[in-house]
Amino acid sequence: GSGLGLGAFGVAALAFLWPGASTGFGGKINVGSVADAQTAIGSKQPFYNATAKTYIVAYPKADLGNAKKVSAYTPPILAGMEAGYVALYQKCVHLGCRVPWCQSSQWFECPCHGSKYNRVGEKKAGPAPRGLDRFALTVAGGNMTIDTGNIQLGPPIGTNTTGQQQEGPLCV
Question: Which residues pair with 145 in a beta bridge?
């Protein structure tokens, strides 16, 4: 009886510890169609996906040359930018608060300690040590997929590849 009980426990422990196919946060997530993202972006808001904990924003193709000069923008991030998008992790790099979008300033503004990031997640103000972290984004067949299993650190302080400034009153 003891051997049977230990054997069952061993099987259950292996099933618990064995990595499965990750389709939630920590894996590749289909976040929706390009058309859905364009609808949100067209109304001057980021496209948000709660499962991926990610904001998808447009990246201006005219500014790709500037982005290629930033070492923090690795090939997987640049590939998304070349497709016209950036996938920004919702977490503030200062203390981990969720950073909401401010419609009036057209920036991401952290309500916890006031860090501010421009439209493409580059740090503009506050105590954050860098810009918002990012995920690799791919576009295929009209759908967007984000690899949330590999967080890429955001760009260093002073990075401003798009030149986008505050466009109205701050929210925080």
Answer: 30, 138
